[in-house]
Specification:
Oligomer: heterodimer
Largest interface: A-B, 44 and 40 residues
CATH architecture of one domain in chain B: Alpha-Beta Complex
Radius of gyration of chain A: 16 Å
CATH superfamily of chain A: Class I glutamine amidotransferase (GATase) domain
CATH class of chain A: Alpha Beta
Structural class of chain B: alpha+beta
Low-confidence stretches of chain A: none
CATH class of one domain in chain B: Alpha Beta
Helix content of chain A: 25-40%
Strand content of chain A: 15-25%
Distance between the termini of chain A: 13 Å
Strand order of the largest sheet of chain A: 2-1-3-4-11-10-9-6-7
Number of strands of chain B: 28
Helix content of chain B: 25-40%
Mean pLDDT of chain B: 92
Mean pLDDT of chain A: 96
Order of helices and strands of chain A: EHEEHEHEEEEHEHEEH
Low-confidence stretches of chain B: 602-607, 610-614, 689-697
């Protein structure tokens, strides 16, 4: 089992994802350079947060044309587990691997704080170790996290149970009050129809040790590990 | 301003336009043995500008203590460096970007952050923390501020905050601390001081010394454009007038994405082992980097300007040399290995071009199309510039008498309403609206972000293994109001408070950096303030064992002839030996004892404004008149800063570090702006502070019940800002142990109350309830005071 963390020019959470997987979880992980089309036999791919290519045109808009994204797309189409965090989520949307798009936060400002998200679905590689309805405390740090899509897509998303994380309050009682950026239906993370590709705006890699204020992000990486172990058993 | 070719004949008048005096011009002629051409004049004018040469401050800065057993590199390099154990070092420095931030707040602030980050990674250290010390004019209309000025100040604040955020957030460094202050004197001259800190292996620190005759000189990073020409000389080294807005083109433009690439490429290039020296291009751009590298290395340098990557066509040698385009570096490579370096930069998509070489002798030759555009001996230019012993004069003594001072309320007066007002004052109110616009958690090292502890705390991951052992604490402080009243004491307080803050996080303060913001050095009163400030810093930094490893002086902070308060900002760095023992300000459990630690427990030392029974001594009223409470409640800014006793500060620091190391206390929070009452309230708020909406469910609400027996007025007991004090909370079972430790360090430990479960906040003074409120009411006043002002821009 091996994780790959893609490094785009301007990625700045690549080291953090690497640390969470390698040091905290103790699983094999390596960096994958954006110009490489070789995914180095990784079994799961993380697109980390940051400001790929400065995000000057539109978040993720240029990164999706990186050579590595061709391979990531192929990998995703063949069922490989892909997780996009923050900028990685934005890139996956731009690449069409996930539905929807990001708008500026409704307050028009960058926000960095801990938020609470509810795990809505557990039948995905990034949530299978969590409990349905479990509430995770995880930080966000973005200007453009206001998830949006047209009504038809939204209906499809809900119908197919593709909304995997939703903002909420600490006790889970008021999703609207917990929504920091205006995202439609309080969506914090979605997966594709096939469920192997997922993206979320909060940073689980920043919530992996109690010293950092929360360990709740670990369950997402643990889910991926379990999914890979499960897949390996199935093919064995 | 002439920016054309070398055809222009330079005269002393043209030199004056460049800010070069007649005496300085004569010195230039003497060094060159001839008249300079226009490019050479440009080079001299920026190198000898106040900003780059420190010509007015040098004679005073020499007095600062700069050595210590942990200091690896003192002032004179891009940043100071200290040993933090296990083969690791921390590089850190604070710098101002005041003038650009007034002219163009967003870009001024971004390039301020960009510049200080480059200073750090130029040394080979990866930046892991940024703090910002900011001062603005008042953002609400009132006694001293018109509605229009308040709106203007708000616009400046908004631009600066966005600028800092946009740069640090994109670059990927957490902006985790600092302070924001408001005084009318900063209305047309905000202060934007940015501190950055980075980590490297001790043997991998890089210096900016050109070495090895024949070694290639390589230009890397962004292309050179016409932006920021004369930023250092004309913008930073002159006061503001009505026309200053026309200086907008002198402000540089920042590109944090480019800087991020530059960071990664530089660190990777350094690891090849082929880099001999490296220097960033900040103020005075290519001029400063070439001249200083040659001067420090005792070599010459030769470069060809047509090889410099350019963003625009038709740039003259003058413009190329003086451009302050951002995100550029100059490095010297080992001859024959330049391709290794070029390859790294190519990988990161950055320009990297060999533009010249290190030469023998001390001459810097700047060629353009093979013809000499400038020929200057580097060492005299960089090191033998003008040094001024500017005249100094103490201002006329202020008329200080009891009639100007704060008049205390009658005994038994309920102070709750005043307390609510104090909590809502911009200086004290929650700055969450600001700090949430900064990425505070990237790099996953932040153990205490804004407001969580008295200092910002980051843990240190070993660059190779990721193993965590120690943490670093950082705090910036500076009280301009106190420095205005008494610059020497104000400076001492700045050091003491920064050190105390660091100690309240559990760290031992080990080194300092300073940013000295003052008015025009050509005014004798300003130079007096400056000299007094230096004396205060010398005394405090020596006493508290925090040598100054670097920093920056910003003069000419005045607009229309009115100067700012003298504002030295001190950044102190401390080391926490065990990263799991970070102290925070939040109360943690009901039933815990609230203990007031006071270092001023000796019979010797300065006279303290300790109130006597009966009438308050004049000293109490005099000191109290300089407090935040006096300013907010009575509109009085007068008197003197509180007396300061550095040995008391040291005792408190030692005591806090000892208590923190063994985990004997639950929380620690120093007493500063707003006094004991604010300290206690913030310890009740803190569990909620870093969280978002409806965060209350996260933990049970806590209150505090405190009884003060101190003689004298209740207002002095609750709100005086005398130093060397901190409030700690202690499990009842640890109380005896804490008392023992305090006694051992000569610190008084007074059990003044309890942490309670009932959301009630109550302070009694000599049996009278003087403050009584629910914590929620207090928190609302504190948490939401700035937000409406800031959001209805």
């Amino acid at each position: 089992m091996k994780f790959g963390v893609v490094v785009f020019p301007g990625s700045n959470c690549d080291h953090d994802a690497f640390y969470a997987i390698g040091n905290v979880l103790g699983k094999p992980v390596e960096f994958i350079w954006h110009q490489s089309e070789d995914l180095a036999n990784c079994d799961a791919i993380i697109l980390p947060g940051g400001f790929s290519y400065g995000d000057y045109l539109r978040t993720g808009a240029i990164a999706r044309f990186s050579p590595v994204m061709k391979s990531v797309e192929k990998f995703a189409k063949s069922g490989g587990a892909v997780l996009g965090i923050c900028n990685g989520f934005q890139i996956l949307c731009e690449a069409g691997l996930l539905p929807g798009a990001m708008m500026r936060n409704s307050g028009l400002r960058f926000i960095c704080r801990h938020v609470y998200i509810r795990v809505e679905q557990t039948d995905t590689p990034s949530t299978n170790a969590a409990q349905r309805g479990q509430i995770l405390k995880i930080p966000i740090a973005h200007s453009d996290g206001n998830y949006h899509c047209d009504q038809a897509t939204l209906t499809e998303l809900e119908k197919n149970r593709q909304v995997i994380f939703r903002y909420t309050t600490p006790d889970g009682s008021d999703d609207n009050a917990g929504n920091p950026n205006g995202a439609v239906h309080n969506i914090a993370g979605v997966c594709n129809r096939e469920r192997n590709v997922a993206g979320l705006m909060p940073h689980p890699e920043r919530a992996v040790e109690s010293a950092l204020g929360s360990c709740d992000g670990l369950v997402i990486f643990r889910s991926m590990v379990e999914a890979l172990v499960g897949a390996a058993k199935a093919t064995a | 301003m002439a920016t054309a070719s070398n055809e222009i004949r330079v005269t002393p008048e043209i030199a004056l336009e460049h800010g070069v005096t007649r005496e300085e011009y004569a010195r230039i002629q003497q060094i060159l043995g001839r008249d300079p051409n226009i490019t050479e004049l440009g080079i001299f004018s920026v190198m000898w500008s106040e900003h780059c040469s420190y010509k007015s401050s040098k004679v005073h800065l020499k007095r600062l203590p700069t050595r210590g057993k942990l200091v690896v590199q003192g002032p004179g390099e891009n940043a100071g460096v200290i040993d933090i154990g296990d083969g690791l070092v921390a590089a850190f420095k604070i710098e101002s970007h005041n003038h650009p931030s007034y002219v163009e707040p967003f870009q001024g602030a971004t390039t301020g952050v960009g510049g200080i980050l480059r200073d750090i990674f130029t040394m080979g250290a990866r930046p892991i923390a940024v703090l910002d010390s900011l001062r603005f004019g008042e953002i609400t209309a009132g006694q001293y501020t018109s509605a229009e000025d308040a709106r203007k100040n708000l616009r400046i604040l908004d631009g600066v905050i966005r600028g800092i955020g946009s740069y640090g957030n994109c670059f990927g460094v957490p902006t985790i601390g600092g302070e924001v202050g408001f005084e009318p004197c900063y209305s047309q001259n905000p202060l934007v001081n940015a501190l950055a800190l980075g980590i490297a292996k001790k043997e991998e620190i890089f210096l900016a010394k050109a070495k090895g005759i024949g070694n290639p000189v390589i230009y890397v990073g962004a292309k050179t454009g016409r932006d920021g020409i004369h930023g250092a000389s004309l913008l930073a080294s002159a006061e503001f007038t009505e026309e200053s807005k026309q200086k907008r083109p002198n402000v540089q433009v920042g590109d944090p994405f480019m800087e991020k690439l530059l960071l990664e490429a530089c660190l990777e290039a350094m690891h090849t082992g082929a880099v001999v020296a490296i220097q960033d291009m900040g103020a005075a751009g290519l001029t400063c980097s070439t001249m200083e590298m040659a001067s420090r290395g005792g070599t010459g340098i030769e470069i060809e300007l047509t090889k410099v990557p350019q963003r625009e066509t038709g740039m003259t040698p003058y413009e190329i040399m003086l451009s302050e385009s951002q995100e550029r570096m100059l490095l010297v490579a080992e001859k024959g290995r330049e391709h290794e370096i070029l390859a790294v930069f190519k990988k990161w998509g950055l320009d990297a071009v060999v533009v010249g070489q290190v030469t023998e002798g001390g001459m810097a030759r700047i060629n353009h199309n093979g013809r000499a555009a400038a020929e200057i001996p580097a060492h005299p230019l960089a090191e033998e510039g003008p040094v001024y012993q500017r005249p100094m004069a103490a201002p006329a003594p202020r008329e200080e008498n009891a009639a100007n001072w704060f008049a205390f309320a009658a005994e038994g007066t309920n102070l709750t309403q005043n307390f609510l007002k104090l909590l809502a004052s911009p200086a004290i109110a929650s700055k969450r609206w600001i700090t949430e616009q900064y990425d505070t958690s990237v790099r996953t090292n932040t153990l205490a972000g804004p407001g969580a502890s008295d200092a910002a705390v980051v843990r240190i991951k070993d660059p190779k293994t990721g193993a965590v052992k120690r943490a670093l604490a950082l705090s910036t402080d500076g009280n301009g109001r106190w420095c205005q009243l008494n610059p020497r004491m104000g400076a001492m307080h700045a050091v003491a408070e920064a050190a105390r803050n660091v100690a309240c996080s559990g760290a031992r303060p080990v080194a300092a950096t300073n940013c000295l913001n003052f008015g025009s050095p050509e005014k004798p009163e300003v130079m007096w303030q400056f000299s007094e400030t230096i004396d205060g810093l010398v005394e405090a930094c020596t006493a508290l064992n925090t040598p100054i490893t670097g920093g920056n002086v910003s003069f000419y902070n005045e607009t229309l002839g009115k100067s700012i308060y003298p504002t030295p900002v001190i950044g102190v760095v401390g080391v926490i030996e065990d990263a799991s023992q970070v102290l925070k300000i939040a109360f943690r459990e009901p039933g815990d004892a609230v203990v007031l630690l006071d270092g001023s427990n000796s019979s010797v030392g300065v006279q303290h404004a300790v109130p006597q029974r009966g009438n308050p001594s004049p000293l109490v009223a005099c000191e109290f008149s300089s407090s935040e409470y006096s300013k907010t409640i009575a509109g009085i800014v007068a008197g003197e800063p509180p007396a300061i006793e550095l040995t008391a500060e040291q005792r408190l620091i030692d005591c806090l570090v000892a208590l923190g190391a063994v985990g004997a206390i639950q929380s620690a929070h120093d007493i500063s702006d707003g006094g004991l009452a604010v300290t206690l309230a913030e310890s009740c708020f803190a569990p909620y502070a870093p969280l978002g909406v409806s965060a209350m469910a996260d933990c049970a609400p806590l209150g505090a019940h405190v009884k003060l027996e101190e003689a004298g007025p209740a207002e002095a007991a609750a709100f005086a800002e005398r130093g060397a004090r901190a409030v700690v909370s202690v499990k009842p079972s640890s109380l005896a142990r804490v008392r023992d430790t305090a006694r051992q360090y000569g610190v008084a430990a007074q059990h003044i109350g309890q942490v309670t479960r009932d959301d009630a906040f109550r302070i009694e003074h000599q049996g009278h309830a003087v403050i009584s409120s629910s914590v929620e009411t207090l928190r609302d006043a504190w948490a939401h005071a700035l937000e409406p002002t800031l959001t209805t821009k």
